[in-house]
Design goal:
Number of domains: 2
Helix content: 40-55%
Largest sheet: 6 strands, mixed
Strand order of the largest sheet: 4-3-2-1-5-6
Number of strands: 6
Number of helices: 16
């Protein structure tokens, strides 16, 4: 297998991002303004060497020289400071390790040219920019532009983050069901040409209403816990959020697990008026195969999020795994066929647009 000499990851979506290292220093970068001075080092740039020593007192230049992958992330603190970090990753006695190379509090606008300059400055500080082979990015237009510019500057290859791509495929497929007007769901006609579309939208609307009830009422949350007494694991309901990867799948999976408990609670007098949100037998029957369609995206995303193993060699195999899972089966319900078709169409669009299956680096990693 071809092992790249060096890689860079952009954004919180990068394949092997070290969020633990990033968060460890977020408070340092989020200091109140009265603790900073205009143009001071703490405001414009934190010393990379100091941060490296703070992460690992025994870290030396030799560790940095071993670095064979770099990830970067940008985020805004609760004090509204924009921060960017660069983390190096290397193999030590067959064990993956991480090291903080640099942190910046961004005082400039978030332009691609500014992001590129910050990254290059840190790489040049350690004299490692000539080792870079690949750049892993999320799909933010500014980050993509910065990575394309870096490609020309240091002769490396840009790669889209697989986890983020899979999230976008599912998100864009499901978003069509989020635009349905509530009035359209009052009386769904099976003869309506939009039936499958409305049927799925109705399931999502019901599930979100149930989750909202239990997450916004302390009394309801207590009831949910009480009805699970004696269970090995007491579960809560999870709200799907657009920016949280595969959270719709996680929400529906949890609803299915707790359906019997929710049904019992809705039989109580004070909850009877919520019973209209309970999933019908037909909807429950549909939910399991619905989850089987979304499950492979979640599974591959989780696999791609590993920090302790190489992930680039798994990407093309992961894509093939998803394709196989989206193939039609003899006993597939018409609604599931529609969902699979929609997912497959979006899946193919992203594969072509992002050149995932023609990327020489990914091909070499998977089959070299």
């Amino acid at each position: 297998m071809l092992i790249p000499n060096f890689g860079i990851g952009f954004g919180k979506h990068s394949m092997c991002i070290s969020l633990e290292t990033i968060c460890r220093f977020s408070r340092t970068l989020s200091a109140p303004s009265d603790e900073r001075t205009e143009g001071s080092t703490s405001q414009s740039q934190i010393s990379s060497q100091n941060l490296v020593q703070e992460v690992e007192p025994s870290t030396s230049d030799s560790n940095i020289e071993q670095t064979d992958n770099v990830t970067t992330d940008s985020w805004t603190s609760c004090q509204n400071y924009s921060n960017i970090s660069l983390t190096g990753h290397y193999l030590d006695n067959f064990e993956f390790k991480s090291i903080a190379l640099g942190f910046n509090c961004m005082t400039e606008r978030h332009r691609s040219i500014d992001l590129k300059k910050i990254i290059l400055d840190i790489l040049n500080e350690y004299d490692i920019n000539d080792k870079i082979y690949g750049i892993v990015t999320d799909n933010n237009s500014t980050i993509i532009k910065a990575s394309k510019s870096l490609e020309l500057e240091i002769n490396c290859r840009s790669i889209r983050c697989m986890g983020h791509v899979l999230q976008l495929i599912v998100k864009n497929t499901i978003s069509q069901y989020n635009s349905v007007e509530p009035s359209d769901l009052d009386d769904i006609d099976p003869d309506d040409p939009r039936f499958s579309y409305l049927f799925m939208a109705n399931i999502l609307a019901k599930c979100r209403s149930i989750v909202s009830l239990f997450n916004h009422s302390s009394q309801s949350k207590i009831q949910l816990e009480n009805f699970q007494k004696g269970s090995k694991n007491v579960l809560t309901l999870i709200q799907d959020v657009q920016t949280r990867w595969h959270s719709t799948f996680i929400m529906l999976e949890r609803i299915l697990k707790l359906h019997t408990v929710i049904e019992k609670i809705f039989q109580l007098n004070e909850y009877r008026h919520f019973s209209t949100n309970l999933l019908t037998n037909n909807e429950l029957e549909f939910l399991s195969p619905f989850l089987k369609c979304l499950g492979p995206f979640n599974k591959i995303s989780e696999t791609m999020s590993g920090e302790n193993y190489v992930t680039s060699s798994m990407i093309l195999h992961g894509l093939k795994f998803i394709e196989l899972k989206l193939e039609h089966k003899k006993n597939d319900h018409e609604l599931i066929i529609d969902l699979k078709n929609s997912l497959r169409e979006t899946f193919r669009e992203y594969c072509v647009d992002y050149q995932l299956e023609t990327n020489n680096f990914l091909i070499a990693s998977a089959y070299g």
